[in-house]
Specification:
Blueprint lengths: L1 H18 L21 H28 L3
């Protein structure tokens, strides 16, 4: 009975430590797998403004182009 108790304790301890999965960051820090640098906040802000600003401005620029276009 004592042997079974020891085996079950050892099994649960080994299972608990082996069931925890390591993180998926290959280099070990968050943002390492992103295509842009997130360490420089001003550069990141400029990239976000250009990316989202261009997507927001395109419909307005197209409407202006079509209204100015001569038929």
């Amino acid at each position: 009975m004592l042997n079974l108790k020891m085996v079950s304790r050892q099994f649960t301890r080994l299972f608990r430590t082996s069931s925890i999965r390591p993180s998926h960051e290959p280099e070990g820090f968050p943002g390492a797998n992103l295509p842009l640098d997130i360490q420089n906040r001003y550069k990141l802000t400029a990239i976000f403004i250009l990316f989202f600003g261009s997507g927001l401005a395109i419909p307005f620029l197209l409407v202006r182009y079509h209204l100015k276009k001569e038929v």
